Amino acid sequence: MSSLSQLEQDLKQFRALPYHSDTQLAQKLREVQAWQRGRIHKTHQALFASANNQAMGEFLIDQLYGGEKFNVLAEQLERMVQKAEKLEKFIPANAVSTGAAGIIEAINAIKLDLQLAQYLKENHLSADEPSMIKAYRSVNAESARRQQIADLKQMCYRTDKYLKSFILQKAFSLAKGTAYKKGFQPLYDFIAEGFAAIKPIKSIGAFIEPFCEKELQIITNVHAGKEHPFDV
């Protein structure tokens, strides 16, 4: 299955998620995503403090826990994805597949956090640390969370690899006008934002490896029953 076909399938699954028709669940999901953004900022404060890392840190948080911002992007993408095969005629296929992978990663993050939101809603809990710990343990999606981190790491390395290609960068830059003209601005801009965020980083490994290490340690701590699992 091509990256665009996979993206189309994932967008259909995203649109079918129950929070779109359940205002209470949607509110809980917003609470969970807001809590996640705050927690990630706190966990990786030292890593994100570096001037070269700030843009990438913000992009990851916006990408994975963008809330309403991502909902708007998804709606735009749904309208264009069926004709998106034409994209690869003027935007490098590697750039398109990287962008599609990033959006799929964001949808997967929403699916995982929706499980937490459903638990909080059913148990009349707020998105605070004690309740989130209960939700994580009750939902018990440890394997899926670990896969989420593995996919994120792979996506970052792939993006960095393509960004180092002068030919790809040039072709992607030249395609902007055509992409906008043909109605592919949302996906083009999403890819461009990812490239811009990763560009200042001197070594993607020096950024993403410690990021993923802490995230995986938190997953271990949560499911091992540690009292303060987010303190890493």
Distance between the termini: 38 Å
Mean pLDDT metric: 89
Helix share of residues?
Answer: over 70%
**What gyration radius follows from the Cα positions, in whole Å?**
18 Å
Strand content: under 5%
Series of secondary-structure elements, N-terminal to C-terminal = HHHHHHHHHHHH
Number of helices: 12
Helix- and strand-based class?
mainly alpha
Counting structural domains, the number is 1
Count the E strands.
0
- Report low-confidence residues grouped into runs of 5 or more: none
Q: In this structure, how is the largest beta sheet organized? A: none
Approximate shape: globular
Notes on the protein architecture:
- The structure is a single chain.
- With 232 residues, the chain is an all-alpha fold.
- It has helices spanning 3-15, 23-43, 45-49, 54-64, 68-80, 93-122, 129-139, 142-163, 166-174, 176-181, 185-198, 204-223.
- Helix 6 (93-122) packs across helix 11.
- The radius of gyration is 18 Å and the shape is globular.
Topology:
Blueprint: H1 3-15, H2 23-43, H3 45-49, H4 54-64, H5 68-80, H6 93-122, H7 129-139, H8 142-163, H9 166-174, H10 176-181, H11 185-198, H12 204-223
Structure summary:
The protein has helices spanning 3-15, 23-43, 45-49, 54-64, 68-80, 93-122, 129-139, 142-163, 166-174, 176-181, 185-198, 204-223. The protein is mainly alpha-helical and 232 residues long.
